[in-house]
Specification:
Arc Repressor Mutant, subunit A, three-stranded antiparallel β-sheet, elongated, single chain, 103 residues, 14% strand, alpha+beta, 56% helix, 3 strands
């Protein structure tokens, strides 16, 4: 059985939620405070902090206290493990295509 780093598992778990995916898309255009991230969702700061905490645990986002706000930024190269896994999935899809109708 292939073993993956625990970070890949945490990253996929974090990506399972549409709000967290939207937050990552937003952070792709630059850093933002938790308040700025929560506003488009009409979400409380506490709710957004929970999403951010999961993204931090998955090592996709870092936060830094700046004055009274907490600024969130994407982690450089955070998606390398996911990309590697997806490349393996692509190879699996090629095998499936080659063996279609072989039953």
């Amino acid at each position: 059985m292939v073993q993956y780093r625990p970070g890949v598992d945490r990253a996929f778990a974090a990506l399972a939620d549409p709000t967290r995916r939207a937050v990552l898309e937003r952070l792709g255009s630059g850093s933002a405070t938790i308040s700025e991230l929560a506003e488009p969702f009409g979400m409380s700061l506490t709710g957004m902090k929970k999403h951010i905490r999961l993204l931090e645990e998955a090592e996709l986002v870092t936060t830094e206290k700046v004055g009274r706000a907490r600024r969130c930024t994407l982690v450089p190269y955070a998606f390398e493990g996911i990309s590697t896994w997806l490349q393996r999935l692509d190879r699996f899809a090629q095998v499936v295509e080659r063996t279609k109708g072989a039953r």
